[in-house]
Design a protein that fits this description.
By secondary structure, the chain is mostly helical. The chain has two domains: 16-175, UbiA prenyltransferase (Tetracycline Repressor, domain 2, Orthogonal Bundle); 176-305, Four Helix Bundle (Hemerythrin (Met), subunit A) (Up-down Bundle). The chain has helices spanning 16-26, 29-47, 53-77, 79-84, 100-121, 124-145, 152-160, 163-172, 177-200, 202-207, 213-217, 219-238, 249-271, 276-301, 303-322; strands spanning 2-4, 9-11. The protein has a two-stranded antiparallel sheet with strand order 1-2.
Length: 326
């Protein structure tokens, strides 16, 4: 039998599978999947599409455990407001299925395992970057910013932007301009993504006193901020093509197409900021946007893709000449 102090809720698990499911839910696996996509993008960029399988597996596993540790601590820290909010009341800690002490031990074990795995199979820089992500997310975002500043998401977004640095460092042992550009892409992607969600569930945040931008400044100002960050985001995505030249035509075309859709949805929300369906549409698309952008980075780095684009570039003048004036 498990008890959560302050909620008066008691729950128990009927079998081992339910225990596993509860701890799995503590890690917020859907968030981890997105973070791992950016980690892989960083590795693929650094290795030019030739990632060592053992290194890739170790880095992905270590990154997943670091993210899981941070998310578990976040659940532990926020269990009081999670119990009040309808959307989060069924999470393992506020629902009484996992004790805070057990969640803390679980998070610590994940962090230790992550550091050990990355330091052993990758390098110390990758391990330290992963740990910095945990510290920044828990200490800076969750503790200092989330309940005290409307800019919580903006500054806190740096924590979610660290995984591509981990991926790049795992391959190279250092950091260059390219991973920092990917970092910046995720950093500027975060406010439109989370503020769109905050607009959808503004009443929940207001009920627990979390000063999300829509709660404090209103939907109109939030929509303007989303539009501004979207405009800043889109040019950043093209820096990988020029002047860095680490990505090519496949990625560039994909970034432009995805960015145009992103801008259109942000503009629609700006035109009607009180429409929560438009906020929902932008929020859902933002997830697909980042995942597809990472897929485009990976595809563009594959040797076959590079060969195809190189062949097209070399033969394009000849093909255009052949279909010229008849």
């Amino acid at each position: 039998m498990q008890d959560i102090i302050g909620t008066g809720v008691r729950r128990h698990h009927d079998n081992l599978l339910q225990v596993f499911r509860s701890y799995y839910q503590l890690t917020k696996p859907r968030i981890i999947l997105l973070l791992l996509m950016t980690t892989i993008a960083g590795m693929v960029l650094a290795s030019h599409g030739r990632v060592d399988p053992v290194l890739a597996l170790a880095t992905v596993a270590g990154g997943a455990m670091a993210a899981a540790s941070a998310n578990t601590i976040n659940c532990l820290y926020d269990c009081d407001i999670d119990y009040i909010m309808e959307r989060t009341r069924s999470r393992p800690i506020p629902s009484g299925r996992v004790q805070p002490r057990d969640a803390a031990l679980f998070a610590a074990s994940l962090a230790i395992a992550s550091f050990t795995l990355l330091a052993t199979f990758a390098n110390l820089l990758a391990a330290l970057l992963a740990m910095s992500g945990i510290v920044f997310y828990v200490l800076i975002y969750t503790h200092f910013l989330k309940r005290h500043s409307t800019q919580n998401i903006v500054v806190g977004g740096a924590a979610g932007a660290i995984p591509p640095l981990v991926g790049w460092a795992a391959v190279t042992g250092d950091l260059g301009w390219a991973p920092w550009v990917v970092f910046a892409i995720i950093f500027f992607w975060t406010p439109p993504h989370f503020w769109a969600l905050a607009m959808m569930i503004r009443d929940d945040y207001a009920a627990v006193g979390v000063p999300m931008l829509p709660v404090i400044e209103g939907d109109e100002d939030t929509a303007r901020q989303i539009w501004l960050y979207t405009l800043l985001l889109l040019p950043l995505t093209l820096l990988l093509v020029y002047p860095l030249h680490v990505s090519g035509a496949i990625y560039g075309a994909t970034a432009i197409a995805l960015g145009a859709i992103f801008a259109r949805k942000a503009w629609q929300l700006l035109a009607d900021p009180h429409d929560r369906e438009k906020a929902r549409s932008l929020f859902k698309y933002s997830i697909s946007y980042l995942m597809l952008l990472c897929v485009a980075i990976a595809l563009d780095c594959l040797p076959l893709s590079q060969h195809v684009t190189s062949t097209i570039a070399e033969n394009l003048p000849q093909w255009l000449g052949a279909i010229g004036p008849m």
